[in-house]
Amino acid sequence: MSIKVLVVGHHFVTKHNQRRLEELGKHDDLEITLLTPEWWYEESRKVYLEKKRADKYIIFKGKTLFTNHTALSFYVNKLFGLMLKIRPDIIDVYEEPWSLTTLQVLLIKRLFLRDSKVMFYSAQNINKKYPFFFRWVEQFTFRNADYAYPCSEGAAEVLRDKGYKGKLKVIPLGLDEKESVKRIRDDTFAIGYVGRLVKEKGILDLVDAVAIAGQVRGYKLLIVGEGPLKPYIIERAKQKGILEKIEFAGAVKREEMPSIYALMDVLVVPSKTTPAWKEQFGRIIAEAFLFGVPVIGSDSGSIPEVMAGCGFLFREGDVQDLADTIDRVRKDDNLRNLQIEKAKEYARNNYTWEKTAGEVYKIYKELYEKNISA
Q1: What is the total count of domains within the chain?
Q2: How far is 15 from 49, CA to CA, in rounded Å?
Q3: pLDDT higher than 60, residue 243
Q4: Contact assessment for residue 31 and residue 2, using Cβ atoms and an 8 Å cutoff
Q5: For 275-292, what is the mean pLDDT?
Q6: Rounded to an integer, what distance in angstroms lies between the CA atom of residue 179 and that of residue 177?
């Protein structure tokens, strides 16, 4: 007998994030239906639903209000009708427990589909106190959902601290398995940064560290991404006398990233914790691992967990420690190569779509078997 699954989530507007569903669709006992908004901001850009048809699952596009607001966005069509038509065994809500979309799903389930099982996602790794209504939504989710699958141990700890007592499994974000890129060599040591150009990502600390480390040997800093901090990065680089060492690549499409990684000797993820944010996963770390690029990361948020001893950590906000780590990685080819191989093996075993979708499938089976035996 087939397990009917309804997946609801804004992340699936990108074809990349639908890779999880492609992997799940390989299981013949699943009948998967996806509902996702018409558009959302993903990958630092406004994305209109990129993939509208699939062989192994059915895709529906829903109209939402407050689109692109994680907490406030909710469906004004499709959701109610799909839930009642499909009568899913499992509703996989790829949204935070305090979102209005999650509340919508649970209310419809309580009123009309009491036998359906609901699971939800979370990446929030700071124990924030939300306004009263959203605290109520969160607690309502905790009482009525059947399973949680946060993307990190930090997010799992927050769920438990806030009172979630149900079943839980940590499932990392997924990626396609990559072939190692061959470094395009020149006479400089190329340091890469990929991400939003915002203060909490620590990019100014990286500029300062390159200014220190660059006194020893020729360095190049390749910055991939866009954001409001770019003028300040340029000004800081001018002050430090290293503007000529920096290359801005702008926002790069995912399919162009292999050629970007080929330009790097090391990727640096210098994120800094703020009262409102700390690194929730760091997918770019796992991607670099799979491409065979060594990673230097701060000890902010989930970065140590994602790196799992397969990269080089420094104390967040400590510019001298970062500069010293860059210099150590540059000087020791054997250490760098050892970490590359170790990281690639770890990423293949933990971060591929095949692996992460397989863990989601296990939850589906567990919830379904619990339902039919009740």
Answers
A1: 2
A2: 8
A3: yes
A4: yes
A5: 91
A6: 7
- 206 and 301 share one domain: yes
Alpha helix segments (H runs only) across 214-256:
230-240
Give CA angle at 194 (22, 260), nearest 5°: 80
**Do 150 and 38 fall into the same domain?**
yes
Composition of the chain by helix, strand, coil, percent to 5: 40, 20, 40
Residue type, 193: Y
Asked if 154 and 281 count as a contact pair (C-beta separation under 8 A), the reply is: no
Q: What CA–CA distance (Å, rounded) separates 170 from 155?
A: 9
The tokens 């999650």 sit on which residue?
A: 102
Give the per-residue pLDDT at 127: 93
pLDDT tens, residue by residue, 87-144: 999 999 999 999 999 999 999 999 999 999 999 999 999 999 999 999 999 999 999 9
pTM for this entry: 0.89
**C-alpha span between 21 and 349 (Å, rounded):** 19
Cα 143 from chain centroid? 26
Let me know: does 119 contact 363? Beta carbons within 8 Å. Answer: yes
What is the rounded distance in angstroms from the CA atom of residue 59 to the CA atom of residue 54?
A: 7
| CB hemisphere CA count around 223 (13 angstroms) | 26
Expressed as residue numbers, the domain containing 314 is 189-350
Give the C-alpha separation, 303 to 209, whole Å: 19
Q: What is the CATH number of the domain that holds 331?
A: 3.40.50.2000
- C-alpha angle 243-246-248 in degrees, rounded to nearest 5: 120
Cβ atoms within 10 Å of 63's Cβ, excluding its own: 12
Share of the chain above pLDDT 90, in %: 82
Helix or strand or coil: residue 301? coil
N-term to C-term CA, the chain:
17
Report the SS3 class of residue 96.
coil
The C-alpha atoms of residue 116 and residue 89 are separated, in whole angstroms, by 5
Give the pair of three-digit tokens for residue 277: 């944010």
Q: Are residues 297 and 160 in the same domain?
A: no
Neighbours of 69 (CB within 10 A): 14
